[in-house]
Amino acid sequence: MKRREFITLLGGAAAWPLAAAAQQPAKVPLLGYLTGNSDSADSPRRNAFREGLRQLGYREGQTILIEYRTTAGSPERFSIAASEFSHLNVDVVFAFSTGAVQAAAKAMPNKPIVSITPDPLSAGFVASLARPGGNITGLSTLAGPEIYGKYLELLREVVPNLTRVAVLSNPNFATSALAFKAMEAVAPAVGLSLQIVEARSPDELEAAIATAIRERAAGLVVVLDPMFLAQRAQLAELAMKNRLPAIYGIKEHAEVGGLMAYAASRPEIFRRAATFVDKILRGTNPADLPIEQPTKFELVINLRSAKALGLDVRPTLLARADEVIE
Length: 326
What we know:
Rossmann fold; 18% strand; 13 helices
């Protein structure tokens, strides 16, 4: 064998391992998906998240693996699920709700977390909305103080001669104080006076509603709060029992009998969350990904509840609703 042929053969042999290594399949990323008990396997929110991933080119089970965990009604399960994700060494965590983010951040302080919470800044998850500065980024379900003015406007459209509105607040939840302050600023412009009624636990809800009635409130705003969401059926029943028209910040309240809900579109937010997962998997630091605020909102009116309260919802308002429950 000639020397040149031998060198060529040797060089080719040396390249074989490199070629084989280049043909090895890339690691399939593992995502930990952590949400509350209202997120079922076929829920619109989860389907929207999956659709968002599909639009970005991911195929579940092929180019991305997802471990799903829900709390099944128990907030303590957030910590259990977060611990499981830590042991599985997931690449990214998607966490919906303040409790889910808190548990994920505690169990995995160095893992990227894509969050959906009402106000990540007030909760202390990020340094600023424009520059989160840590391992947590994602989306807020609140669009700013103007959303609370919309609650008052909608309630006034439905309740004739409305002048006094009670605001149900949980002092243990940071966003509640901000919500009331924002409503106080806009209430005079729409001709309303406000009173705050507080409940720190489910046991205090009945007394809070009783206080609202005693103080002659003719309408109720229920601010966004995890405890209020968990007790949405009880709240709807109390409002109906006391003939108190109420508006809520989450669609699920209207679905169980609440009069109205005006809220950011959850499917749209979940779809957008997929873009954060994609950017992080492609190497973007979550500290540099600004928090997004919602741009699409949904008005849901429970017409059955309106009729039970003796309210006549104008056709023009029904036409503006994204969903009418009859």
